[in-house]
């Protein structure tokens, strides 16, 4: 009688970690990590959309932008002390950012192990060069656009939140700070390039999110691409409009009455009130 | 359909064994009928190699009608070649033109080590199936037909998953070498049916985690679906993600019982 010999198969490429208690064990699996990535991505996407819409106040003028900024600090002021709500949102966003980046990094490392000839974009090195049938430019560049957006985030904070990059930066005068920063053609180009990367990241991320969360059925599948494309397009147009508007002179210090700057305007108002 | 003949240049990956260093060999083939299947063309090449006293190219095949999942290689950078919904054995030479150069490579993934030439060890797919375990049905006497009602739509959806032949093209085509499409097809095949409900959550957790021992992480490129000779839908991956998250909660209640 023929006998089958047990043959040692290929070894696992990933050592299974010791199970942590629920719900931490969800994060130990790749599918769970993708779920965390999708949820944190959704939080960050919500921020990006809100941030873009809020920034449209730039088209109204210096005082309105300042008023909007103060409103953000006043959120929830009837219940909790001033700026607590804003700090709560900031902490949530930082946490979302940390898990988003960590899950992306660790999953990329896992895929690298599973792919004998990987590069940064995880492209397989078939001799005939892998011929992509479905993967688009956005999906293949996620591991490039992600780090670009991360670097841009630090630049953006240093530039407009902390004011490390300019001596003319004034606390409490966002309009002026934007005009000074993006008036520099080099800085405007950084903003444009980074926001193109952000839009590409969102184009694949927003679609991928539905898959990772398992939010799908054949009826809604056709809309998922359109939702992702619409969101990416909306954010791209909105965010690119600011550096372009500054460069074109639509958002400009000349638009306000001299002497410019929020401090001058507030003084001016104060004088009027005194009269 | 008129019969034409092709003159082809083949670049084939040759590797003596799992640890040997591989290389491409170039072969010229003339007068290949367009009616031939890709594997018949490889048979012609191997006949010529044997006649010359050389070692024939190792290439796996069994049923040659696209239902067994034994054959499979990268043809010009595409798993199972350029046609959609086609296994290597169903690919015909009419898909190529006279004078073409065809590059034939084995499937590539860390968990698919090369056995010889174009044959790779796809045993990790068996490990995933094993992790799925069993379904509980009464086997005492033959059950009456239609004893368990299965709606037509459910049967059709489950069959879309059952259509998976386990060839490994999804892993080979995936830039991450992820096994998501194979695993989700196998999981959903049973999870959609009433007979699969008893072990649904245990099976989902166990199969997904075994998959993750061997393969990469899905980034939703969709390459697997394009490569799949059975066109398994990407939806199954999403259903499986949802089932896995649910299984982690459900199975928690059973802890300490095993």
Quick summary:
Chain A is mostly helical and 275 residues long.
Task: Name the poorly predicted regions of chain A.
Answer: none
Q: Output the CATH class name of the largest domain in chain B.
A: Mainly Alpha
Low-confidence stretches of chain B: none
How do the SSEs of chain B run, as a string of H and E? EEHEEEEEHHHHHHH
End-to-end Cα distance of chain A, whole Å, is: 110 Å
Structural overview:
The complex is a heterodimer of chains A (275) and B (258). Chain A is mainly alpha-helical and 275 residues long. Chain A has one domain (29-115, 139-274): Up-down Bundle (3 helical TM bundles of succinate and fumarate reductases). Helices cover 63% and strands 0% of the residues of chain A. The longest helix of chain A is centred in the middle third of the chain and has 31 residues, at 84-114. The model of chain A has no long low-confidence stretch (mean pLDDT 87). With 258 residues, chain B is α+β, with helices and mostly antiparallel strands. Chain B folds into two domains: 5-115, Beta-grasp domain (Ubiquitin-like (UB roll), Roll), CATH 3.10.20; 122-252, Orthogonal Bundle (Fumarate Reductase Iron-sulfur Protein, Chain B, domain 2). Chain B is built from eight helices and seven strands. Chain B has helices spanning 38-51, 123-132, 152-162, 169-173, 180-191, 200-214, 223-227, 235-252; strands at residues 5-14, 23-33, 74-75, 78-79, 101-105, 114-116, 119-120. In chain B, the strands form two sheets. In chain B, strands 2-1-5-3-4 form a five-stranded mixed beta sheet. Chain B starts with a strand and ends in a 6-residue tail after the last helix. The model of chain B has no long low-confidence stretch (mean pLDDT 93). At the A-B interface, α1, α3 and α7 of A face α2, α6, α7 and α8 of B.
């Amino acid at each position: 009688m023929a006998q089958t010999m047990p043959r040692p198969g290929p070894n696992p490429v990933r050592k299974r970690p010791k199970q942590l208690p629920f719900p931490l064990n969800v994060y130990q699996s790749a599918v769970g990590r993708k779920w965390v990535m999708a949820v944190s991505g959704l939080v960050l996407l919500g921020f990006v959309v809100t941030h873009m819409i809020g920034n449209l106040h730039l088209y109204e003028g210096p005082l309105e932008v300042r008023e909007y900024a103060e409103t953000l600090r006043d959120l929830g002021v009837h219940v909790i002390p001033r700026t607590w709500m804003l700090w709560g949102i900031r902490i949530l966003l930082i946490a979302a950012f940390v898990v988003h980046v960590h899950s992306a990094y660790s999953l990329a490392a896992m895929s690298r192990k599973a792919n004998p000839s990987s590069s940064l974009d995880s492209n397989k090195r078939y001799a005939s060069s892998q011929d992509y049938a479905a993967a688009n430019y956005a999906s293949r560049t996620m591991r490039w656009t992600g780090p670009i957006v991360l670097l841009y985030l630090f630049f953006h904070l240093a530039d407009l939140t902390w004011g490390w990059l300019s001596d003319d930066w004034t606390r409490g005068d966002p309009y002026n700070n934007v005009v000074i920063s993006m008036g520099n053609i080099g800085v405007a180009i950084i903003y444009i390039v980074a926001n193109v990367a952000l839009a590409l990241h969102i184009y694949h991320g927003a679609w991928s999110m539905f898959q990772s969360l398992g939010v799908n059925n054949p009826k809604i599948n056709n809309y998922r691409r359109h939702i992702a494309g619409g969101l990416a397009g909306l954010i791209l147009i909105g965010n690119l409009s600011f550096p372009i508007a500054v460069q074109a002179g639509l958002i400009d210090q000349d638009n306000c009455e001299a002497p410019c700057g929020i401090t001058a305007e507030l003084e001016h108002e104060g004088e009027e009130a005194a009269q | 359909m008129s019969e034409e003949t092709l003159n082809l240049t083949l670049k084939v990956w040759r590797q003596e064994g799992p640890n040997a260093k591989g290389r491409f060999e170039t072969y010229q083939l003339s007068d290949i009928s367009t009616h031939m299947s890709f594997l018949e063309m490889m048979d012609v090449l191997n006949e010529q190699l044997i006649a010359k006293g050389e070692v024939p190219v190792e290439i796996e095949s069994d049923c040659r009608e696209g239902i067994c999942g034994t054959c499979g290689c990268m043809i010009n950078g595409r798993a199972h070649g350029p046609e959609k919904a086609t296994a290597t054995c169903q690919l015909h030479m009419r898909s190529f033109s006279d004078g073409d150069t065809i590059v034939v490579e084995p499937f590539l993934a860390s968990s698919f080590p090369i056995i010889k030439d174009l044959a790779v060890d796809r045993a990790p797919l068996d490990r995933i199936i094993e992790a799925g375990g069993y379904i509980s049905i009464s086997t005492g006497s033959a059950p009456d037909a239609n004893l368990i009602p299965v709606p037509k739509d459910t049967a059709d959806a489950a069959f879309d998953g059952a259509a998976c032949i386990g060839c490994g093209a999804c892993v080979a085509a995936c830039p991450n070498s992820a096994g998501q499409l194979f695993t989700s097809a196998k999981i959903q095949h049973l999870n959609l049916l009433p007979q699969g409900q008893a072990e649904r959550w245990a099976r989902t957790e166990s199969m997904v985690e075994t998959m993750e021992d061997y393969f990469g992480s899905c980034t939703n490129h969709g390459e697997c679906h394009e490569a799949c000779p059975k066109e398994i839908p990407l939806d199954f991956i999403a259903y499986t993600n949802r089932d896995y998250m649910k299984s982690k909660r459900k199975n928690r209640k059973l802890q300490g019982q095993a």
